[in-house]
Amino acid sequence: MARISVLDDDVSLDEPTLIEGFPGVGLVGKIATDHLIDVHEMTHYANVHCDGLPPVAVYRESETAATTPVRLYADPENDLVALRSDVPVNPTAATEVAACLGSWFDEAELFPIFLSGLGREKGEAPPSLYGIATGDGGEALGRADVSEPSESGLVSGPTGAMLAAALENDRDSVGLVVESDPKFPDPEAARVLIADGIDPIAGIETPIDGLVEQATEIRNAKQQLAEQMRQATEESSQAEPLKMFQ
Q1: Sorted alphabetically, which Gene3D superfamilies does this protein's record hold (predicted)?
Q2: Is 184 helix (H, G, I), strand (E, B) or coil?
């Protein structure tokens, strides 16, 4: 049965901002979300039980407790929730997962920030970031001074399905799209996501030095998942230029 199983009823949230971290191009959403959870010392708040998610159990180093592959973490002080996923979502299940999460989004009265990578070969310039919105989400992009897209495109995978559901249900949300390495984990693009998009929209301050200093370590740690995503790109949350489909 589809449900969000809250583990800590003492966590108090008031119309929080949610950061979505399904794996995608450059693993930018996952790297950014994992970093937010770590540096803000966020609490494991809930397990996600949605039809369509892989029926697997996850365990962590030095811990005996098994848990779900998709989990929610909370930071009550910053009114922040982060969705951490250790698995990709099959494209045939993306709509089902989006509907499951969307019903909880409405119940919790939260404001989602969806994250996607746009595959680009790396250059010397910092990765470009732009935002899209549903409902009244454009107001948040304006306050944060996030740029408009420089080209037409689409967002696919579970992130695209959640954006589509937000659009259909007139739910306020934003989608952040950052240029990222199409082949390898990209901590630099994740840094741009946090510094120029997530922090100003959510009204928080996140130390990001570690993402740069530990870039090689992060790439190595995420490489296996990145390889899985390349082998099944249709399962990946990603942004793509629309001209590819015209």
Answers
A1: PAC-like subunit (3.40.50.10900)
A2: coil
